[in-house]
């Protein structure tokens, strides 16, 4: 009997995917403020860090000291690192405009990629990334914090189930007090405030959330037009990029207002979806306010966090790489949604610059 129980337990262990070897992951760039995540997940055994590409010796020394890392992990040549350590996946934590360089190097080597949001700084780069991924049969994921939110998943489920009716208006509010005000590192500040490296300021940094979420809610549909207004409230701090942006997306029967700002009183990432039969508001990662019946008052819900692996982007990446998780075509991490999101951001930049509405072809 004991022997039979042992066999059953071993089988269950294998079926749960726990026998999978750790996914070999390399890092490209150290300037992004979220890169510390990969060095602070020693409790997770689903990945193995095999290499780090970074050309700035000061950043390299800083990370070696902070996380007690072996210097042998670090490379100043991206191609050499990919050839020598042979990772299964590589995650980008450098400037956004370098995402295309990484995919050009990784795709022919059949290495999956995850980048921090957004996918690219230009629509041309986004389309090339998509083409390279398809040609070489690799996955390219874009990591958004709002992908982890149980509240957003809940609201989208209401849309899919028809409980809100047809979407008419969506409002997405994202941002914080400003990169300097919240104390980001000098390297990250330099990236965020460089119009080439980041593609813009608050419009790119936080407008991308709304573009990603609205495209997801609309099941991959592109807007008819994009209108944007940007401003510098703090030109003494943000000399070369905007710190305030409002973007309006017009669809045949729906409208989305994206408020991206480095001027919020406090950090926020929330979304409001109004339909013909009800509304739902994702207040934060787990809280929702909704009114689904006009005869009943608004109600508030507190949800459980999303289950593993969806609260850890590296766990998501690992399961995608080893085949445990298959992303749907209309996925917040996926290429289809994020190529359109970059198209929206590029149109928003053009609209703000030209002071007119941009119609998408």
Task: Please provide a written account of the structure.
It is globular and about 65 Å long. With 361 residues, the chain is of the alpha/beta class. It folds into two domains: 144 residues, 3-Layer(aba) Sandwich (Rossmann fold); 186 residues, Dihydrodipicolinate Reductase, domain 2. Helix 2 links the parallel strand 1 and strand 2. A nine-stranded mixed β-sheet has the order 14-13-12-11-7-10-9-8-15. It has a six-stranded parallel β-sheet with strand order 3-2-1-4-5-6. It contains twelve helices and 15 strands.
Q: Estimate what percentage of residues fall within beta strands.
A: 15-25%
Shape: globular
Uncertain segments:
1-17
Order of helices and strands: HEHEHEHEHEHEHEHHHEEEEEEEHHE
CATH topology of the largest domain: Dihydrodipicolinate Reductase, domain 2
Q: Percent range for helical residues?
A: 25-40%
Estimated radius of gyration: 21 Å
What is the H level of CATH, i.e. the homologous superfamily of the largest domain? Answer: Dihydrodipicolinate Reductase, domain 2
Largest sheet: 9 strands, mixed
């Amino acid at each position: 009997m004991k022997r039979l129980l042992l066999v059953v337990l071993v089988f269950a262990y294998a079926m749960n995917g726990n026998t999978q070897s750790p996914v070999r992951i390399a890092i490209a760039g150290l300037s992004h403020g979220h890169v510390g995540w990969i060095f602070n997940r020693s409790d997770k055994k689903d990945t193995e860090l095999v290499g780090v590409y970074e050309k700035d010796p000061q950043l390299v020394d800083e990370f070696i000291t902070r996380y007690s890392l072996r210097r042998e992990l670090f490379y100043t040549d991206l191609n050499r690192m990919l050839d020598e350590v042979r990772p299964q996946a590589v995650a980008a934590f450098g400037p956004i405009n370098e995402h295309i360089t990484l995919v050009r190097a990784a795709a022919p080597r059949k290495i999956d990629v995850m980048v921090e949001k957004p996918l690219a700084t230009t629509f041309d780069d986004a389309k090339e990334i998509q083409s390279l991924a398809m040609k070489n049969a690799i996955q390219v994921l874009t990591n958004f914090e709002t992908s982890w939110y149980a509240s957003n998943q809940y609201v989208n489920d209401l849309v899919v189930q028809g409980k809100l009716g047809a979407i008419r208006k969506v409002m997405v509010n994202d941002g914080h007090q400003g990169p300097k005000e919240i104390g980001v590192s000098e390297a990250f500040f330099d990236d965020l405030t460089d119009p080439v490296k980041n593609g813009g300021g608050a419009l790119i940094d936080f407008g991308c959330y709304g573009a990603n979420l609205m495209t997801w809610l609309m099941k991959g549909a592109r807007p008819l037009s994009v209108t944007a207004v940007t401003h510098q409230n703090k030109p003494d701090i943000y000399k070369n990029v905007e710190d305030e942006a409002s973007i309006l997306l017009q669809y045949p029967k729906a409208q989305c207002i994206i408020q991206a700002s480095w001027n919020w009183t406090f950090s926020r990432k929330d979304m409001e979806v109004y339909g013909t039969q009800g509304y739902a508001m994702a207040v934060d990662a787990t809280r929702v306010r909704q009114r689904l019946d006009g005869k009943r008052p608004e109600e508030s819900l507190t949800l459980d966090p999303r289950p593993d692996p969806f609260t850890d982007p590296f766990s998501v990446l690992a399961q995608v790489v080893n085949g445990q998780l298959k992303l749907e075509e209309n996925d917040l991490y996926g290429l289809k949604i994020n190529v359109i999101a970059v198209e929206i951001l590029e149109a928003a930049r053009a609209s703000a610059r030209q002071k007119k509405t941009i119609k998408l072809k």
